[in-house]
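Subject: complex prediction, re-run

Hi both,

The earlier run crashed halfway through, so I resubmitted it with identical inputs.
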Amino acid sequence: MFEKTVAELSRALGRKEFSSAELTTVFLERISRYQNLNAFITVDPERSLAQAKAADVRIARGEGGALTGIPVAQKDIFCADGWLTTCGSKILSNFTAPYDATVIDKLNRAGAVCLGKTNMDEFAMGSSNETSYYGVVKNPWNPETVPGGSSGGSAAAVAARLAPAATGTDTGGSIRQPAALTGLSGLKPSYGRVSRYGMIAFASSLDQGGPLCRTAEDCAWLLNAMAGFDARDSTSVDAPVPDYTKTLDQKIEGLRIGLPKEYFGEGLNPEIAQVIQAAIGEFKQLGAQVLEVSLPNSQLAIPCYYVLAPAEASSNLSRYDGARYGFRASDYKDLLDMYCKTRAEGFGPEVKRRIMIGTYALSAGYYDAYYLKAQQLRRLIAEDFRRAFEVCDVIMGPTSPSTAFKIGEKTDDPVAMYLNDIYTVPINLAGLPGMSVPAGFDARGLPIGLQLIGKYFDEARLLNVAHRYQQVTDWHQRTPKGFS
Amino acid sequence: MSLDREQVRKMAHLARLTITEQEAASYAETLSRILVLIEQMNAVDTTGVAPMAHPNESGLRLREDTVTEPNLREKFQKIAPSVEAGLYLVPKVIE
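This time it finished cleanly. Structure:
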């Protein structure tokens, strides 16, 4: 059961081969058996099974939809009514969400079963899951390595077959990079496609929720349920949601693939370069044309991002003051002291670093040199993509400059950690949709991800292109040793 | 550009974070390294480029000024660190 994709499980549930309660039990047992991965922060079998039984009733009445009865692991950044929602932080260690995020609400309405809340970097600030207050997550492909981050728990859970699908969020690569490092298909939709309501804010002009699944087809199924206009999110775009599964099989003959020369330069591991070139070869076989494009400002995306994201974070995280919810320090002498101690004890070092960088970039006398400058660069980066898409339909390249690295290898050097997202960050700055799909393995047997970048709101094309690739390759069907 | 301990203490204060002397030294070192990374931005002349605040440039929607949310005071206060008579309690601010 646990080896099946969402699409296969949905068909099996519809044919009543097994019930959602049985299916959910299988996954809950696997979650418990593979606890050492530390993929989940919270599981609540009773609550999950109650949802599964309700789904079975719906299915029996013939009222089930595509996702009815499908267990989905939820990143612990999404508020889910009655569930502990920690965002990977001590400061929310006692926060039971009093309402549902729109993504949670939509998946509940679709009849999906919440399997639990997955581990993540604290406030989604990290690329390895090592900043979580709840401990590191292990990569199922090699437990000595990281699963990537910040949606590392979601990625590890799906890769180890502890869940058929999971939600993630992506501010600078947090869906795509863990998908690459764990051999999954992960989609970051266009900014405005998926509601951010109830998704704990890190950097509001960059954050976007999306699915982590085994296949592009499953991502299409999940996105169908997750996407759509939401009046509760002021940045939600009021555009119709196509049925993303309907266009998966379209032929891609004549597709123009742009390869940004800046994505194949120095700093890219040669094994990865080789795998990406082989993947491009597959697309040529499928009838695609390949041409070189240029994103000249993409090298400055990381510096630009490390102004904008911390600036927005310093503002967003000012709400954690110990007054209304969450952790409060136990010993303080006045209100100011309560704030300062609560935040000092409640936030981890990486979150504090980013809050202070953001505070600095926004402080009097530095605003123009940092924040304004970064916003101007952001436009140049977005313009690079606009120009590239005048001559191509999809841009491709590596998702990450390296495969999964050793736990602890980069924790002492924040700058080295930030450079993991060198190929993913520009897409968030431009607000475009991006995907990572498995494209091969390195010599140590660790997965390599191919990144696909689309035009604004062109998710259907990305999913179509990724699906066609998965029809002629089997990288996405590999299971890490010990989990089959 | 690098940050010294005094500037780190100032940022920590603005951000409402208590930090120890030892932490100030360590943050000064790591934050300075991050600033060196950030200052690579200066390699590009951006004179006259309009700043981009977010990717959704069709502009933000307006809505009617009407009540759309239910009152969930009790539910919200159930998860608060300290409440009394429907109010959130914090240390005394006014003598």
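The longest helix of chain B spans residues 21-38.

- K.
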